[in-house]
Give the backbone structure.
Amino acid sequence: MLIDHVAIYVNELEAAKDFFIKYFAAVPGELYRNEKTGFSSYFLGFENGAKLEIMTRPGIEKDEKPFLKSGYAHIAFSLGSKSAVDELTEKLKKDGFGITSGPRTTGDGFYESSFIGFEGNLIELTV
């Protein structure tokens, strides 16, 4: 079995798409729009075949996203090397994103950093 994709609702669809293109080299598919419901989405493809669907529709609430809650916690991107994690973390910091941890080697042996990305979502960078 293979997970086909993960989907996330966003408030600003185009800004979210641009974020993933800029920092993670995402390749967006065609914009899907349902005129009846106002739902719109993009499927974003990544180098290894992973897919992320970003979606929006009228009425999405802009709420705080506490990190210690049940449900999805974060999305992690494997960058392939410690130096890639270090470089992207530094670029994100310079671009004004809040780094929440790292880069560091965790107690269970992973090299990672995490930051608060678009619309307050937690994103992890790892080798």
User: Anything to note?
Assistant: Strands lie at 6-9, 27-28, 32-33, 40-45, 51-56, 75-78, 98-105, 111-116, 122-126. The chain has two domains: 1-58, 73-127. The domain at 1-58 is CATH 3.10.180.10 (2,3-Dihydroxybiphenyl 1,2-Dioxygenase; domain 1). The mean pLDDT is 92.
